[in-house]
């Protein structure tokens, strides 16, 4: 999957100590991408926008 134009940002829930951090690119029209901030060349998980919103909502409900 081509992610040209992805603007990555760190999750607000990521630790500030350089440890467990994820980055999200949610500026693309048909996909939301997630990656490990310590391995930017590594694997990327992708979600459809509806699935991503459901995931974020579910996580927020548990916080």
Features:
63 residues; alpha+beta; 4-stranded antiparallel beta sheet; 1 helix; 4 strands
Written overview of the protein:
This protein is α+β, with helices and mostly antiparallel strands. The protein has one domain (9-62). It has one helix spanning 49-62, and strands at residues 9-10, 22-25, 32-36, 44-47. It has a four-stranded antiparallel beta sheet with strand order 1-2-3-4. The chain is flat. The relative contact order is 0.19.
What's the short version?
This protein is an alpha+beta fold and 63 residues long. It is 22% helix and 24% strand. It has one helix at 49-62, and strands at 9-10, 22-25, 32-36, 44-47.
Helix and strand topology:
Layout: E1 9-10, E2 22-25, E3 32-36, E4 44-47, H1 49-62
Protein name: DUF397 domain-containing protein
InterPro entries: DUF397
- Amino-to-carboxy terminus distance: 32 Å
Q: Write the element-wise H/E pattern from the N-terminal end onward.
A: EEEEH
Q: Report the sheet-strand fraction.
A: 15-25%
Q: Give the beta-strand count.
A: 4
Low-confidence stretches: none
Mean pLDDT: 87
Largest sheet: 4 strands, antiparallel
How many separate domains make up the residues? Answer: 1
Count of helical segments?
A: 1
- Counting helices, strands and paired strands, the structural category is alpha+beta
Overall geometric form: flat
Using the CA coordinates, give the radius of gyration. 12 Å
> In which range does the helix fraction lie?
10-25%
Walk across the major sheet and give the strand order.
1-2-3-4
Organism: Micromonospora endophytica
Protein name: DUF397 domain-containing protein
InterPro entries: DUF397
